[in-house]
Design goal:
With 91 residues, the chain is mainly alpha-helical. The chain has a domain of 54 residues. The protein contains three helices and two strands; from the N terminus they run H-E-E-H-H. A two-stranded antiparallel sheet has the order 1-2. Helix 1 runs antiparallel to helix 2.
């Protein structure tokens, strides 16, 4: 027997929105691990834009993979919370 969340649809949607916000913070934190701002005086204007002034961190493909896992996790949780319980029982 599976545990059921006794909440109406609006409460379930609120749970999913809160979970999405928490996962967004977690994903941002995980993908920024090891990154630090470019520092040090170079004596000349850097050949980078201000958006490129961070170095280090995981490769871009790994950051994409992390976000895909987070989105897939949220999708499964949303499907489990929002599906029709009568349809899953075969009624």
């Amino acid at each position: 027997m599976r545990a059921r969340i006794r909440a109406n649809r609006g409460q379930r949607i609120a749970i999913l929105v809160g979970l999405a916000a928490a996962l967004a913070v977690l994903g941002h934190w995980v993908t920024q691990l090891g990154r630090h701002p470019f520092s040090g005086w170079t004596g000349y204007a850097p050949l980078m834009t201000p958006g490129d002034l961070t170095v280090g961190g995981p490769h871009p493909w790994l950051r994409v993979l992390i976000w895909l896992v987070i989105v897939a996790f949220w999708t499964v949780i949303a499907w489990l919370l929002l599906r029709d319980p009568a349809a899953s029982e075969g009624v």
